Amino acid sequence: MTTGFDFAALSRWPYPESPELQAHDAADLLLLDTAKAWWDAGHGAGGHPAPVVVLEDSHGALTLPLLAQGHPVRIGQDALAQERSLDANLARLQPGGAPNLRRHGIAAELVDGAEMVLLQLPRSLDALDQWARAVAEYAHPEVVLLAGGRDKHMTPRQNTVLERYFTEVVPGRGRSKSRVLTARGPRRGQPNRFPLRAEHPVPDVGPVTLAAFGATFGGAHLDPGTALLLDHLRPAAERLAASDRGRAVDVGCGNGTIAVCLALAARRLEPTPTEGTPDVPARIVATDQSADACASTTLTAQWNGVRDLVEVRRDDALASFPDASEDLLVLNPPFHAGNTVDSRVALRLLAECARVLRPGGELWCVWNSHLQYRPELERRVGPTRQLARNRTFTVTVSTRR
């Protein structure tokens, strides 16, 4: 399965490229070889090459070798950047297209009747819980779920999650500091924990109810960095309420906290329209590359009565926004790509924010203080002032040159 395919030719684009980062790892290779061993042993009744479902293939290192061997593949990816990366590698390495490839959301349709599922283990136990339940509930009764990862990113809690939905979970023999967990015997009818729901008090806003599906970063919690930003966000809400354009963009909206709090605060600050004046409410565009984050933000806006004010858009690093098109951006940047801690992910977002801001537009940002992003904000966006700082986080406002 892993012979004859040029894994080194895979690109990480649109994720940051560097010599020390590859678009595949030993866990990908071990997953493919483990699946082949099951097929060689006669597993599955779907014909040869056997159909397979792939979950969370970051750059195509699982999907493209399977397609090259003639396997029909159904692929589900939560992150839009992963979809773009896979599509770019597919177009470059298999220019004839992939008639055997079908893309679905990570839900019942993706895993319906599947006899073999390959899963790159996610960072989030909630994501693993949500996906494992879907496989157990909707896949074939004889399904084999192969969940692979690097040893340094694996924990016994992942086994515990899988055991919630499968009668048999067996850790495989390690190879190249990687391992595959094999889950069989789906437990049907287990309760669905998602969406998660939690209420949090927010100064100047009141109680806010947050929703979260499995792959939403931070779940339904109020992120402490976001909480510090919200303590100082009133001037941004005032700017939004007073602007004739009346629009802000929450970049990387997660569970929707910032977008919804901005909408609630701006609505409270808006002057009562006089008779004959069109009522154009302040509008927030909430963007995230995660399908689960977008679904969470939509539900959070609905639960808090501002669904009409919040447009939710699945987007990768503002790719759908024209240059110099926005006046107000709000960002709590990530510092990892998948399981890899990499500040270049945030730097890519800062560069895109600079591209999208109009001259004089503002980027409100909260970041881990030890990452020292201020010089980058000054260089990429423009003059930057500090609004708040505690032991962990810093809040800044940068004005586009």
Would you give an account of this structure?
This protein has 401 residues and is an alpha/beta fold. It starts with 25 loop residues before the first helix and ends with a strand. A 7-stranded mixed beta sheet has the order 3-2-1-4-5-7-6. A 7-stranded mixed beta sheet has the order 12-11-10-13-16-18-17. It has a two-stranded antiparallel ribbon with strand order 8-9. It contains 12 helices and 18 strands. A hairpin with a 3-residue loop joins strand 8 (196-202) and strand 9.
What is the fold-level CATH name, i.e. the topology of the largest domain? Rossmann fold
Order of helices and strands: HEHEHEHEHEHEEEEHHEHEHEEEEHEHEE
| Poorly predicted tracts of residues | none
How many helices? The count is 12
Task: Just name the CATH architecture of the largest domain.
Answer: 3-Layer(aba) Sandwich
Strand content: 25-35%
How much is the average pLDDT? 92
CATH class of the largest domain: Alpha Beta
- What helical percentage do the residues reach? 25-40%
